[in-house]
Amino acid sequence: MMAALWALVRRDLTLAARIGGGAELGLVFFLILVAIMPFALGPDQVLLGRLAPAVLWLAALLATLLGLDRLFQADEDEGALDQFMLADMPLELVVLAKALAHWLATGLPLSLAAPLFGLMLNFEPAEAGPLVATLLVGTPALTLIGAIGAALTVSLRRGGLLLSVLVMPLAVPVLIFGVAAAGAATSGGRGFAEPFAILLALTLVMLVVAPVAAAAALRSVRE
Amino acid sequence: MLRFFASLANPTRFAGLADRLLPWLAGATALAFAAGLYMALVIAPADYQQGESVRIMYIHVPAAWLALGCWTAMSVAALGTLVWRHPLADVAQQAAAPVGAAFTAVCLLTGSLWGRPAWGTWWVWDARLTSVLVLFLMYLGVMALWRAIDDPGRAARAVAILTLVGFVNVPIVKFSVEWWFTLHQGASLTISGSAIDPAMLRPLLVMALGYLLLFVTLLLMRMRTELMRRRLRRMALVAASGLAAGTI
Lengths: 223, 248
Description:
Order of helices and strands of chain B: HHHHHHEEH
Radius of gyration of chain A: 18 Å
Helix content of chain B: over 70%
Number of domains of chain B: 1
Oligomer: heterodimer
Distance between the termini of chain A: 26 Å
Protein backbone atom coordinates (compact mmCIF):
# COMPACT_ATOMS: atom_id res chain seq x y z
CA MET A 1 0.00 0.00 0.00
CA MET A 2 2.85 2.38 0.78
CA ALA A 3 4.31 1.59 -2.64
CA ALA A 4 1.06 2.61 -4.31
CA LEU A 5 0.98 5.76 -2.18
CA TRP A 6 4.47 6.81 -3.24
CA ALA A 7 3.76 5.89 -6.86
CA LEU A 8 0.78 8.23 -6.76
CA VAL A 9 2.84 11.04 -5.21
CA ARG A 10 5.56 10.51 -7.83
CA ARG A 11 2.99 10.51 -10.65
CA ASP A 12 1.42 13.77 -9.50
CA LEU A 13 4.80 15.42 -9.07
CA THR A 14 5.84 14.32 -12.55
CA LEU A 15 2.59 15.61 -14.00
CA ALA A 16 3.07 18.91 -12.19
CA ALA A 17 6.62 19.28 -13.50
CA ARG A 18 5.85 18.45 -17.15
CA ILE A 19 4.30 20.81 -19.68
CA GLY A 20 0.73 21.70 -18.73
CA GLY A 21 1.34 20.86 -15.09
CA GLY A 22 1.79 24.41 -13.93
CA ALA A 23 3.76 23.77 -10.72
CA GLU A 24 6.03 26.75 -11.36
CA LEU A 25 2.97 28.92 -12.00
CA GLY A 26 2.09 28.93 -8.30
CA LEU A 27 5.46 30.44 -7.49
CA VAL A 28 5.11 33.05 -10.24
CA PHE A 29 1.64 33.92 -8.97
CA PHE A 30 3.05 34.25 -5.44
CA LEU A 31 5.71 36.65 -6.74
CA ILE A 32 3.10 38.71 -8.60
CA LEU A 33 0.91 38.97 -5.51
CA VAL A 34 3.90 40.17 -3.47
CA ALA A 35 4.86 42.58 -6.24
CA ILE A 36 1.46 44.27 -6.52
CA MET A 37 1.22 44.92 -2.77
CA PRO A 38 3.62 47.93 -2.78
CA PHE A 39 1.60 49.41 -5.64
CA ALA A 40 -1.51 49.28 -3.47
CA LEU A 41 0.08 50.15 -0.13
CA GLY A 42 2.66 52.68 -1.31
CA PRO A 43 6.45 52.29 -1.21
CA ASP A 44 6.76 53.22 2.49
CA GLN A 45 9.60 50.97 3.71
CA VAL A 46 8.58 50.99 7.40
CA LEU A 47 4.96 50.14 6.62
CA LEU A 48 5.94 47.39 4.18
CA GLY A 49 8.36 45.90 6.68
CA ARG A 50 5.66 45.74 9.33
CA LEU A 51 3.11 44.22 6.96
CA ALA A 52 5.53 41.79 5.30
CA PRO A 53 4.60 38.64 7.29
CA ALA A 54 0.87 39.28 6.72
CA VAL A 55 1.36 39.98 3.02
CA LEU A 56 3.48 36.86 2.52
CA TRP A 57 0.92 34.73 4.35
CA LEU A 58 -1.97 36.17 2.34
CA ALA A 59 -0.09 35.57 -0.90
CA ALA A 60 0.63 32.00 0.19
CA LEU A 61 -3.07 31.42 0.93
CA LEU A 62 -4.17 32.74 -2.48
CA ALA A 63 -1.43 30.97 -4.41
CA THR A 64 -2.30 27.67 -2.71
CA LEU A 65 -6.05 28.00 -3.28
CA LEU A 66 -6.07 29.14 -6.87
CA GLY A 67 -4.07 26.11 -7.97
CA LEU A 68 -6.30 23.65 -6.16
CA ASP A 69 -9.40 23.54 -8.34
CA ARG A 70 -7.73 21.04 -10.68
CA LEU A 71 -6.58 18.76 -7.85
CA PHE A 72 -9.17 16.08 -8.61
CA GLN A 73 -10.71 17.46 -11.77
CA ALA A 74 -7.95 16.31 -14.11
CA ASP A 75 -8.30 12.74 -12.77
CA GLU A 76 -12.06 13.00 -13.06
CA ASP A 77 -11.79 14.07 -16.71
CA GLU A 78 -9.46 11.27 -17.76
CA GLY A 79 -11.17 8.58 -15.68
CA ALA A 80 -8.29 8.00 -13.25
CA LEU A 81 -10.56 8.89 -10.37
CA ASP A 82 -12.77 5.89 -11.18
CA GLN A 83 -9.69 3.68 -11.07
CA PHE A 84 -8.72 5.11 -7.67
CA MET A 85 -12.16 4.25 -6.36
CA LEU A 86 -11.96 0.70 -7.65
CA ALA A 87 -8.44 0.20 -6.32
CA ASP A 88 -7.62 -1.56 -3.04
CA MET A 89 -6.14 1.60 -1.60
CA PRO A 90 -8.61 3.54 0.56
CA LEU A 91 -9.77 6.72 -1.11
CA GLU A 92 -8.70 8.65 1.99
CA LEU A 93 -5.08 7.68 1.29
CA VAL A 94 -5.44 8.72 -2.35
CA VAL A 95 -6.59 12.14 -1.18
CA LEU A 96 -3.68 12.32 1.25
CA ALA A 97 -1.18 11.36 -1.45
CA LYS A 98 -2.55 13.90 -3.90
CA ALA A 99 -2.56 16.62 -1.23
CA LEU A 100 1.03 15.74 -0.33
CA ALA A 101 2.11 15.96 -3.97
CA HIS A 102 0.30 19.27 -4.37
CA TRP A 103 1.99 20.65 -1.27
CA LEU A 104 5.41 19.47 -2.44
CA ALA A 105 4.83 21.21 -5.78
CA THR A 106 3.29 24.44 -4.39
CA GLY A 107 3.49 24.95 -0.63
CA LEU A 108 7.08 23.83 -0.15
CA PRO A 109 8.74 26.01 -2.85
CA LEU A 110 6.49 28.85 -1.80
CA SER A 111 7.58 28.63 1.84
CA LEU A 112 11.24 28.46 0.88
CA ALA A 113 10.96 31.38 -1.54
CA ALA A 114 9.06 33.57 0.95
CA PRO A 115 12.14 35.18 2.59
CA LEU A 116 13.59 35.98 -0.83
CA PHE A 117 10.41 37.71 -1.98
CA GLY A 118 10.18 39.23 1.51
CA LEU A 119 13.33 41.21 0.75
CA MET A 120 11.25 43.24 -1.67
CA LEU A 121 8.94 44.10 1.25
CA ASN A 122 11.78 45.30 3.49
CA PHE A 123 11.66 42.04 5.43
CA GLU A 124 14.77 41.40 7.54
CA PRO A 125 16.62 38.29 6.27
CA ALA A 126 17.74 37.61 9.85
CA GLU A 127 14.10 36.89 10.79
CA ALA A 128 13.52 34.53 7.90
CA GLY A 129 13.76 31.36 10.01
CA PRO A 130 10.52 31.76 12.00
CA LEU A 131 8.63 32.95 8.92
CA VAL A 132 9.67 29.92 6.89
CA ALA A 133 8.83 27.70 9.86
CA THR A 134 5.27 29.08 10.12
CA LEU A 135 4.74 28.72 6.37
CA LEU A 136 6.13 25.18 6.32
CA VAL A 137 3.83 24.18 9.17
CA GLY A 138 0.78 26.17 8.03
CA THR A 139 0.61 25.68 4.26
CA PRO A 140 -0.16 21.92 4.54
CA ALA A 141 -3.32 22.88 6.44
CA LEU A 142 -4.27 25.26 3.60
CA THR A 143 -3.72 22.53 1.01
CA LEU A 144 -5.74 20.01 3.04
CA ILE A 145 -8.64 22.41 3.61
CA GLY A 146 -8.52 23.24 -0.08
CA ALA A 147 -8.64 19.53 -0.91
CA ILE A 148 -12.07 19.34 0.75
CA GLY A 149 -13.26 22.22 -1.43
CA ALA A 150 -11.70 20.68 -4.53
CA ALA A 151 -13.49 17.38 -3.85
CA LEU A 152 -16.82 19.14 -3.31
CA THR A 153 -16.53 21.03 -6.59
CA VAL A 154 -14.95 18.22 -8.64
CA SER A 155 -17.91 17.78 -10.98
CA LEU A 156 -18.38 21.50 -11.68
CA ARG A 157 -17.06 23.04 -14.85
CA ARG A 158 -16.31 26.39 -13.30
CA GLY A 159 -15.59 25.46 -9.72
CA GLY A 160 -12.63 27.76 -9.11
CA LEU A 161 -14.55 30.71 -7.74
CA LEU A 162 -16.89 28.52 -5.72
CA LEU A 163 -13.90 26.67 -4.29
CA SER A 164 -12.47 29.93 -2.96
CA VAL A 165 -15.84 30.96 -1.49
CA LEU A 166 -16.16 27.61 0.29
CA VAL A 167 -12.59 27.38 1.52
CA MET A 168 -11.68 30.92 2.59
CA PRO A 169 -13.87 30.96 5.74
CA LEU A 170 -12.41 27.61 6.78
CA ALA A 171 -8.88 28.94 6.27
CA VAL A 172 -9.37 31.93 8.59
CA PRO A 173 -7.94 30.23 11.74
CA VAL A 174 -4.82 29.10 9.88
CA LEU A 175 -4.28 32.64 8.64
CA ILE A 176 -4.79 34.15 12.11
CA PHE A 177 -2.33 31.87 13.88
CA GLY A 178 0.14 31.86 11.00
CA VAL A 179 0.33 35.64 10.87
CA ALA A 180 0.32 35.83 14.70
CA ALA A 181 3.32 33.50 14.95
CA ALA A 182 5.22 35.12 12.06
CA GLY A 183 4.46 38.60 13.38
CA ALA A 184 5.50 37.72 16.93
CA ALA A 185 8.78 36.34 15.67
CA THR A 186 9.63 39.47 13.70
CA SER A 187 8.77 41.87 16.52
CA GLY A 188 11.12 40.63 19.20
CA GLY A 189 10.49 36.89 19.23
CA ARG A 190 8.18 36.78 22.26
CA GLY A 191 4.80 35.08 21.98
CA PHE A 192 5.91 32.88 19.10
CA ALA A 193 5.58 29.44 20.67
CA GLU A 194 1.89 29.56 21.50
CA PRO A 195 0.39 30.49 18.10
CA PHE A 196 2.96 28.26 16.43
CA ALA A 197 1.83 25.28 18.51
CA ILE A 198 -1.80 25.97 17.64
CA LEU A 199 -0.88 26.31 13.96
CA LEU A 200 0.76 22.90 14.19
CA ALA A 201 -2.35 21.54 15.91
CA LEU A 202 -4.57 22.91 13.13
CA THR A 203 -2.45 21.16 10.52
CA LEU A 204 -2.60 17.88 12.44
CA VAL A 205 -6.40 18.15 12.85
CA MET A 206 -6.78 18.84 9.15
CA LEU A 207 -4.49 15.90 8.38
CA VAL A 208 -7.15 13.71 9.99
CA VAL A 209 -10.36 15.53 8.99
CA ALA A 210 -9.59 16.57 5.41
CA PRO A 211 -8.87 13.15 3.81
CA VAL A 212 -12.04 11.68 5.36
CA ALA A 213 -14.21 14.64 4.32
CA ALA A 214 -12.70 14.93 0.83
CA ALA A 215 -13.04 11.19 0.20
CA ALA A 216 -16.67 11.30 1.36
CA ALA A 217 -17.25 14.22 -1.01
CA LEU A 218 -15.67 12.37 -3.94
CA ARG A 219 -17.81 9.30 -3.25
CA SER A 220 -20.97 11.35 -2.89
CA VAL A 221 -20.56 12.66 -6.42
CA ARG A 222 -20.50 9.09 -7.76
CA GLU A 223 -23.64 7.72 -6.12
CA MET B 1 -39.81 9.55 18.57
CA LEU B 2 -37.74 7.61 16.02
CA ARG B 3 -40.87 6.12 14.56
CA PHE B 4 -42.33 9.61 14.28
CA PHE B 5 -39.33 10.82 12.26
CA ALA B 6 -39.44 7.69 10.13
CA SER B 7 -43.12 8.27 9.37
CA LEU B 8 -42.26 11.76 8.10
CA ALA B 9 -40.18 10.18 5.34
CA ASN B 10 -43.44 10.09 3.39
CA PRO B 11 -43.58 13.55 1.77
CA THR B 12 -47.36 13.58 1.58
CA ARG B 13 -47.69 12.83 5.28
CA PHE B 14 -45.15 15.57 6.03
CA ALA B 15 -46.98 18.07 3.82
CA GLY B 16 -50.24 17.21 5.56
CA LEU B 17 -48.68 17.75 8.98
CA ALA B 18 -47.07 21.01 7.83
CA ASP B 19 -50.40 22.22 6.44
CA ARG B 20 -52.10 21.57 9.77
CA LEU B 21 -49.31 23.06 11.91
CA LEU B 22 -48.45 26.15 9.87
CA PRO B 23 -51.49 28.37 10.69
CA TRP B 24 -50.99 27.75 14.42
CA LEU B 25 -47.25 28.37 14.18
CA ALA B 26 -47.72 31.55 12.16
CA GLY B 27 -50.31 32.81 14.65
CA ALA B 28 -48.08 31.99 17.61
CA THR B 29 -45.16 33.76 15.92
CA ALA B 30 -47.23 36.90 15.36
CA LEU B 31 -48.46 36.83 18.98
CA ALA B 32 -44.97 36.32 20.40
CA PHE B 33 -43.53 39.13 18.29
CA ALA B 34 -46.41 41.49 19.14
CA ALA B 35 -46.01 40.82 22.86
CA GLY B 36 -42.21 40.78 22.69
CA LEU B 37 -41.90 44.00 20.70
CA TYR B 38 -44.39 45.78 22.99
CA MET B 39 -42.50 44.63 26.08
CA ALA B 40 -39.13 45.46 24.53
CA LEU B 41 -39.92 48.85 23.00
CA VAL B 42 -42.48 50.23 25.47
CA ILE B 43 -42.44 48.49 28.85
CA ALA B 44 -38.74 47.65 29.27
CA PRO B 45 -36.69 50.39 30.96
CA ALA B 46 -33.99 52.30 29.11
CA ASP B 47 -30.42 51.57 30.12
CA TYR B 48 -28.87 54.05 32.57
CA GLN B 49 -25.75 54.27 30.43
CA GLN B 50 -26.86 53.50 26.88
CA GLY B 51 -30.31 55.11 27.02
CA GLU B 52 -32.87 53.98 24.46
CA SER B 53 -30.32 52.36 22.14
CA VAL B 54 -30.23 49.32 24.44
CA ARG B 55 -33.52 48.24 22.87
CA ILE B 56 -31.57 47.07 19.84
CA MET B 57 -30.52 44.19 22.08
CA TYR B 58 -33.99 42.61 21.87
CA ILE B 59 -33.59 42.28 18.10
CA HIS B 60 -29.87 41.59 18.07
CA VAL B 61 -29.30 38.92 20.71
CA PRO B 62 -32.05 36.44 19.69
CA ALA B 63 -30.90 36.76 16.07
CA ALA B 64 -27.39 35.76 17.15
CA TRP B 65 -28.76 32.76 19.08
CA LEU B 66 -30.77 31.62 16.09
CA ALA B 67 -27.83 32.18 13.72
CA LEU B 68 -25.81 29.65 15.70
CA GLY B 69 -28.79 27.38 16.38
CA CYS B 70 -29.61 27.19 12.69
CA TRP B 71 -26.13 25.92 11.78
CA THR B 72 -26.45 23.32 14.55
CA ALA B 73 -29.83 22.26 13.16
CA MET B 74 -28.29 22.05 9.67
CA SER B 75 -25.49 19.87 11.03
CA VAL B 76 -28.02 17.49 12.57
CA ALA B 77 -29.83 17.45 9.22
CA ALA B 78 -26.49 16.78 7.50
CA LEU B 79 -26.02 13.73 9.73
CA GLY B 80 -29.56 12.74 8.79
CA THR B 81 -28.60 12.93 5.13
CA LEU B 82 -25.28 11.09 5.36
CA VAL B 83 -25.96 8.55 8.11
CA TRP B 84 -29.68 7.78 8.16
CA ARG B 85 -30.46 8.81 4.57
CA HIS B 86 -33.66 10.42 5.74
CA PRO B 87 -35.34 11.82 2.62
CA LEU B 88 -36.48 14.97 4.41
CA ALA B 89 -33.11 15.75 5.98
CA ASP B 90 -31.63 17.37 2.90
CA VAL B 91 -34.87 19.25 2.25
CA ALA B 92 -34.68 20.64 5.79
CA GLN B 93 -31.04 21.54 5.32
CA GLN B 94 -31.65 23.30 2.03
CA ALA B 95 -34.61 25.17 3.52
CA ALA B 96 -32.71 26.22 6.65
CA ALA B 97 -29.64 27.76 4.99
CA PRO B 98 -31.17 31.03 3.68
CA VAL B 99 -33.14 31.47 6.92
CA GLY B 100 -29.96 31.08 8.94
CA ALA B 101 -28.13 33.47 6.63
CA ALA B 102 -30.94 36.00 7.13
CA PHE B 103 -30.73 35.72 10.93
CA THR B 104 -26.95 36.15 10.74
CA ALA B 105 -27.39 39.20 8.51
CA VAL B 106 -29.91 40.69 10.97
CA CYS B 107 -27.46 40.03 13.79
CA LEU B 108 -24.61 41.75 11.91
CA LEU B 109 -26.69 44.74 10.78
CA THR B 110 -28.31 45.43 14.16
CA GLY B 111 -24.96 44.88 15.83
CA SER B 112 -23.44 47.48 13.55
CA LEU B 113 -26.28 49.92 14.28
CA TRP B 114 -25.84 49.29 18.00
CA GLY B 115 -22.07 49.59 17.80
CA ARG B 116 -22.27 53.12 16.47
CA PRO B 117 -23.86 54.68 19.63
CA ALA B 118 -22.36 52.20 22.11
CA TRP B 119 -18.78 51.92 20.86
CA GLY B 120 -18.58 54.90 18.50
CA THR B 121 -17.88 52.77 15.43
CA TRP B 122 -19.88 50.80 12.89
CA TRP B 123 -17.46 47.93 12.71
CA VAL B 124 -14.39 46.65 14.48
CA TRP B 125 -12.36 43.55 13.72
CA ASP B 126 -13.24 42.14 17.07
CA ALA B 127 -13.38 38.46 17.92
CA ARG B 128 -17.14 38.08 18.13
CA LEU B 129 -17.92 40.22 15.10
CA THR B 130 -15.37 38.44 12.98
CA SER B 131 -16.55 34.95 13.90
CA VAL B 132 -20.17 35.86 13.12
CA LEU B 133 -19.04 37.33 9.80
CA VAL B 134 -17.22 34.08 9.03
CA LEU B 135 -20.40 32.19 9.93
CA PHE B 136 -22.31 34.43 7.49
CA LEU B 137 -19.77 33.68 4.75
CA MET B 138 -20.13 29.96 5.42
CA TYR B 139 -23.93 30.25 5.05
CA LEU B 140 -23.36 31.96 1.70
CA GLY B 141 -20.94 29.19 0.71
CA VAL B 142 -23.53 26.51 1.52
CA MET B 143 -26.15 28.36 -0.53
CA ALA B 144 -23.71 28.78 -3.42
CA LEU B 145 -22.93 25.05 -3.40
CA TRP B 146 -26.66 24.21 -3.46
CA ARG B 147 -27.04 26.37 -6.54
CA ALA B 148 -23.93 25.02 -8.26
CA ILE B 149 -24.93 21.32 -8.43
CA ASP B 150 -28.10 20.66 -10.40
CA ASP B 151 -28.92 17.16 -9.09
CA PRO B 152 -30.61 17.56 -5.67
CA GLY B 153 -29.34 14.25 -4.29
CA ARG B 154 -25.70 14.93 -5.12
CA ALA B 155 -25.97 18.54 -3.98
CA ALA B 156 -27.45 17.36 -0.68
CA ARG B 157 -24.51 15.06 0.11
CA ALA B 158 -21.92 17.66 -0.90
CA VAL B 159 -23.60 20.32 1.22
CA ALA B 160 -23.92 17.90 4.15
CA ILE B 161 -20.16 17.32 4.14
CA LEU B 162 -19.47 21.05 3.92
CA THR B 163 -21.90 21.72 6.79
CA LEU B 164 -20.22 19.17 9.05
CA VAL B 165 -16.74 20.49 8.25
CA GLY B 166 -18.08 23.97 8.97
CA PHE B 167 -19.47 22.74 12.28
CA VAL B 168 -16.02 21.48 13.26
CA ASN B 169 -14.64 24.84 12.22
CA VAL B 170 -17.05 27.03 14.18
CA PRO B 171 -15.40 26.48 17.60
CA ILE B 172 -11.95 26.84 15.99
CA VAL B 173 -12.95 30.17 14.47
CA LYS B 174 -14.43 31.27 17.80
CA PHE B 175 -11.31 30.47 19.80
CA SER B 176 -8.88 31.67 17.17
CA VAL B 177 -10.44 35.11 16.95
CA GLU B 178 -10.58 35.43 20.73
CA TRP B 179 -6.87 36.07 20.50
CA TRP B 180 -7.65 39.42 19.06
CA PHE B 181 -8.43 42.58 20.95
CA THR B 182 -12.03 42.22 22.05
CA LEU B 183 -14.64 44.95 22.36
CA HIS B 184 -17.75 42.78 22.36
CA GLN B 185 -18.87 41.74 25.83
CA GLY B 186 -19.04 38.13 26.90
CA ALA B 187 -22.31 36.26 27.31
CA SER B 188 -24.51 37.72 30.04
CA LEU B 189 -26.91 34.82 29.98
CA THR B 190 -25.61 31.34 30.70
CA ILE B 191 -27.11 28.08 31.90
CA SER B 192 -26.01 28.84 35.45
CA GLY B 193 -27.56 32.27 35.74
CA SER B 194 -28.24 35.68 34.30
CA ALA B 195 -26.48 39.02 34.69
CA ILE B 196 -29.46 40.82 33.17
CA ASP B 197 -32.14 42.54 35.23
CA PRO B 198 -35.46 40.63 35.12
CA ALA B 199 -37.17 43.72 33.66
CA MET B 200 -34.95 43.38 30.58
CA LEU B 201 -34.65 39.61 30.65
CA ARG B 202 -38.38 38.94 30.29
CA PRO B 203 -38.80 40.84 26.97
CA LEU B 204 -35.59 39.26 25.70
CA LEU B 205 -36.87 35.75 26.35
CA VAL B 206 -40.26 36.51 24.76
CA MET B 207 -38.44 37.88 21.70
CA ALA B 208 -36.26 34.76 21.60
CA LEU B 209 -39.40 32.64 21.65
CA GLY B 210 -40.78 34.73 18.76
CA TYR B 211 -37.57 34.24 16.76
CA LEU B 212 -37.63 30.51 17.42
CA LEU B 213 -41.26 30.24 16.30
CA LEU B 214 -40.45 32.34 13.23
CA PHE B 215 -37.59 30.00 12.39
CA VAL B 216 -39.76 26.89 12.68
CA THR B 217 -42.56 28.51 10.65
CA LEU B 218 -40.25 29.63 7.86
CA LEU B 219 -38.48 26.27 7.86
CA LEU B 220 -41.72 24.32 7.47
CA MET B 221 -42.98 26.69 4.76
CA ARG B 222 -39.76 26.47 2.81
CA MET B 223 -39.61 22.68 3.19
CA ARG B 224 -43.16 22.35 1.88
CA THR B 225 -42.34 24.59 -1.08
CA GLU B 226 -39.12 22.71 -1.80
CA LEU B 227 -40.95 19.36 -1.78
CA MET B 228 -43.46 20.73 -4.30
CA ARG B 229 -40.67 22.16 -6.44
CA ARG B 230 -38.89 18.80 -6.53
CA ARG B 231 -42.11 16.99 -7.40
CA LEU B 232 -42.70 19.44 -10.24
CA ARG B 233 -39.13 18.93 -11.45
CA ARG B 234 -39.57 15.17 -11.41
CA MET B 235 -42.90 15.42 -13.27
CA ALA B 236 -41.29 17.66 -15.86
CA LEU B 237 -38.47 15.14 -16.32
CA VAL B 238 -40.91 12.24 -16.65
CA ALA B 239 -43.03 14.19 -19.11
CA ALA B 240 -39.95 15.14 -21.14
CA SER B 241 -38.65 11.55 -21.24
CA GLY B 242 -42.11 10.29 -22.21
CA LEU B 243 -42.22 12.84 -25.00
CA ALA B 244 -38.76 11.83 -26.19
CA ALA B 245 -39.68 8.14 -26.13
CA GLY B 246 -42.87 8.87 -28.08
CA THR B 247 -41.14 10.72 -30.89
CA ILE B 248 -38.37 8.16 -31.41
